[in-house]
């Protein structure tokens, strides 16, 4: 039976907001019985940082992978910039993808390439008309924006976990995305580095006017970055609100995230 979403708190006011992502009734099953998404509906407003919380296996990462077509849902509607991405031809979907940055949990850098080569490879794939000087300039600028200009000729193996995450962010930013999807941006990092990455997410939003969905288990990251929080449970959005509203929820399961 399809399970309906249960909202513990009233939906955060979105009056006057412009949604850049709208998801309605998203379902995804793996195999015969692994029903991961059971009718997820959510929206991301322009200029907003939306944090999605949930236990491991609750479908958080699957949800954002569906947005960019890395996973195909069984049922539902996904609108990005008012276009239903599930109905787009491949070339149309690629045009939408260029406007969306995706920060993978493991950073996903090419280990055989230097930092500079990683960034140049991404840039040239989508902007082949740039001159060598223009590519160099954009690489230098984006590395400076994440505080790692000195790492330009290093190999990924020479970088700490926090540095790899920053380089992965630089690679995302070099295409100047309007939306960024962060998949566990602070996982595996120490407390200080995690806070630095969370602060960098805020800086990126302020400087580049991005809209973001942040998947995380890190409550410090959620508290610092979230304009709004949604919590997934049993394949649906179970609760929604600000950090403070959810922390004070009468629902024990919701409050357990904040202990």
Describe this structure in words.
With 259 residues, the protein is an alpha/beta fold. The protein has two domains: 1-9 and 17-99 and 177-259, P-loop containing nucleotide triphosphate hydrolases (Rossmann fold, 3-Layer(aba) Sandwich), CATH 3.40.50.300; 106-170, no CATH class. Helix content is 35%, strand content 25%. It is built from nine helices and ten strands. The chain has helices at 60-67, 90-98, 115-126, 132-145, 161-173, 191-208, 219-225, 243-247, 252-255; strands at residues 19-30, 34-45, 49-54, 75-80, 83-84, 100-103, 179-183, 211-215, 228-233, 236-241. Strands 6-7-8-3-9-10 form a six-stranded mixed sheet, sandwiched between helices. A four-stranded antiparallel sheet has the order 2-1-4-5, covered by helices on one side. Helix 6 links the parallel strand 7 and strand 8 (211-215). Helix 4 packs across helix 5 and helix 6 runs parallel beside helix 7 (219-225). The protein is globular and about 55 Å long. Residues 1-14 have low confidence and may be disordered. Residues 21-259 form the ABC transporter domain. InterPro entries: AAA+_ATPase (IPR003593), ABC_transporter-like_ATP-bd (IPR003439), ABC_transporter-like_CS (IPR017871), P-loop_NTPase (IPR027417). Pfam families: ABC_tran (PF00005). Keywords: ATP-binding, Nucleotide-binding, Transport.
Topology, element by element:
Layout: E1 19-30, E2 34-45, E3 49-54, H1 60-67, E4 75-80, E5 83-84, H2 90-98, E6 100-103, H3 115-126, H4 132-145, H5 161-173, E7 179-183, H6 191-208, E8 211-215, H7 219-225, E9 228-233, E10 236-241, H8 243-247, H9 252-255
Helix pairs in contact: 4-5, 6-7
Protein name: Phospholipid/cholesterol/gamma-HCH transport system ATP-binding protein
GO molecular function: ATP binding; ATP hydrolysis activity
Keywords: ATP-binding, Nucleotide-binding, Transport
